[in-house]
Design brief:
The structure is a single chain. By secondary structure, the protein is mainly alpha-helical. The chain folds into 2 domains: 106 residues, no CATH class; 67 residues, no CATH class. It is built from 12 helices and no strands. The longest helix is centred in the last third of the chain and has 24 residues.
């Protein structure tokens, strides 16, 4: 069969295995084109491996979204909401309102602290600056840096108005980041 399709044996074997796992209802939705093959093969696979997510759950999800003409990206987002989100997302999808769930997911910031892209980049820059300032401060204590020129440059760098101004004008997101950093909690750029 692999030779006739000009595909590898592994490619054919994987697809035959998927077809064998499909319930008749799922098979009908896939082969009729009501639900795209790609999300079934790749997006829903990760949820089939989760504890508590059975074939019936996958089938309910597929049936609820079949024929809705959703993009692969939208199906991926809805799957995250359906299998990992609150029960209200699952209920809305079952009732045929995937648009409500997509809208709710769009309103959620990517960063749990609510930082926008500019603030995330600035936080990353501040982390990098902090790393190098700590390195410089540590080296400034080293006895090998006895040269007057080196001492002067270190004093200018460590008391820079630029650093003070950058850290003084933080938004609420940045203050949250500072508290996490001080407590030793992991931060996301």
């Amino acid at each position: 069969m692999a030779e006739q399709l000009a595909r590898s044996k592994a490619w054919v074997s994987m697809r035959l295995g998927l077809i064998a796992q499909m319930s008749p209802r799922v098979r009908e939705k896939i082969f009729s084109g009501a639900f795209p093959v790609y999300p079934y093969m790749y997006t829903l696979r990760q949820f089939r491996r989760m504890n508590g997510v059975g074939p019936q759950d996958i089938e309910e999800f597929m049936v609820a979204l079949s024929g809705k003409k959703l993009s692969v990206r939208e199906i991926e987002q809805l799957a995250q909401g359906y299998f990992r989100g609150p029960p209200s997302f699952r209920q809305a999808i079952r009732e045929g309102h995937p648009g409500r769930v997509l809208e709710a997911l769009r309103r959620v910031p990517e960063d749990p602290d609510g930082c926008n892209e500019f603030e995330r980049v600035l936080l990353k820059d501040l982390e990098t600056t902090q790393k190098y300032m700590q390195r410089v401060m540590g080296k400034s204590q080293d006895r090998r840096s006895g040269c007057a020129r080196t001492r002067s440059a270190l004093e200018r760098s460590c008391s820079s108005d630029c650093i003070r101004n950058a850290t003084a004008g933080r938004s609420a997101c940045m203050r949250s980041w500072s508290r996490k950093k001080a407590s030793g909690s992991p931060t996301r750029p």
